[in-house]
Amino acid sequence: MKILVPVKRVVDYNVKVRVKSDGSGVELTNVKMAMNPFDEISVEEALRLREAGIASEVIIVSIGPLKAQETIRTALAMGADRGILVQHDELVEPLAVAKILKQIIDEEKPELVIAGKQAIDDDNNQTGQMLAALLGWPQGTFASVLAIADGEMDVTREVDGGLQTIKLKLPAVVTTDLRLNEPRYASLPNIMKAKKKPIEMKTPEDYGVDMTPRLTVLKTIEPTGRNAGVKVADVAELVAKLRDEAGVL
Ligand code: AMP
Fold first, then answer.
1. In terms of CB atoms within 10 Å, which end of the chain has fewer, N or C?
2. Is residue 233 part of a domain?
3. What is the pLDDT of residues 162-190, one digit of tens each?
4. Which mutation among 4, 104, 127, 175 tests ligand 1's pocket best, with the greatest number of atoms within 8 A of CB?
5. Residue (of 228, 225, 226, 245) closest to 237 by Cα position
6. Which atom in ligand 1 lies closest to the alpha carbon of residue 86?
7. Owning domain of residue 198
8. d(Cα 5, Cα 79) in Å, to the nearest integer?
9. Number of domains in the chain
């Protein structure tokens, strides 16, 4: 079976994000970019399924600027087989991404899509769910364990208050949570090999998808700083502060 892994190019998680002076968004000029961390986990999981003989091919898809080729190349250097870049230079919203992925899935016919639970730039947590809805496929979101056998898959999900295991029939969409695995680093020989792996170049027009944003960003602001805390001497003082100053008792 084929596995399709959508990967997004985002601001590197180590970078301290700065808001543009006009408040229209975050500064992306000369900022280090990298693969969305949850997508690294998805790539790793797909590779492990291929290494276990469950999957035959791992296809990487990114929708974004030409430079997203580098992100695809990183996934190819980890071991994925080939990539597809749908080039779009403006911001992309989850619904447009899901519509494009749906078209690619109709063509490629993978039996499993492994996406990240969220992209750390916009924190939308929507694409996997929208894609499952468009495809009419079952979905296992926030996965921390995957077990596939006989056309079915058990997905252990990280939910509030614990873990929930569900059984899905393939084809299905999974979104990955942090504890699913620890992604590998690409070795130097694999980085060299990845240069020769194919990346197909496409545009949203090839899939007939209207990329016009449906959302209007009104304002982007820095989070306010937190006030310093105080140490209390004992429980009685804590209770008094909660009652008299915080008004929560
Ligand atoms: P989001 O719904 O934006 O939080 O993103 C959830 C997941 O959808 C990401 O972890 C990716 O797997 C996928 N995704 C979102 N945007 C893109 C994109 N532009 N290109 C490829 N995959 C994407």
1. C
2. yes
3. 999 999 999 999 999 999 999 999 999 99
4. 127
5. 245
6. 20
7. 2-244
8. 12
9. 1
Residue minimizing CA distance to atom 8 of ligand 1: 127
Closest approach atom of ligand 1 to CA 126: 2
Cα(93)–Cα(211) distance, integer angstroms: 8
To test the pocket of ligand 1, the residue of 97, 100, 101, 134 to mutate (highest count of ligand atoms within 8 Å of its CB) is 97
Buried b (16+ CB within 10 A) or exposed e, 48-78: bbbeeebbeebbbbbbbbeebbebbbbbbbb
Report CA(95)–ligand 1 centroid distance (Å). Answer: 10
The answer to whether residue 249 sits within a structural domain is: no
The residue assigned the tokens 């130097």 is 188
- Asked if residue 103 is part of any domain, the answer here is yes
Select from 168, 219, 234, 232 the least CA-distant residue to 26.
219
Residue 91 lies in a domain: yes
Name residues contacting ligand 1 (CB within 6 A). Answer: 6-8, 36, 38-39, 61-64, 92, 94, 97, 115-116, 118-119, 122, 124-128
- Per-residue model confidence as pLDDT tens digits over 72-103: 999 999 999 999 999 999 989 999 999 999 99
Nearest atom within ligand 1 for CA of residue 130: 2
Q: Which CATH number covers residue 220?
A: 3.40.50.620
Which residue has the CA at smallest separation from atom 7 of ligand 1? 116
Residue 97 to residue 7: CA distance in whole angstroms? 11
Look up the pTM and report it: 0.91
Closest residue CA from atom 19 of ligand 1: 63
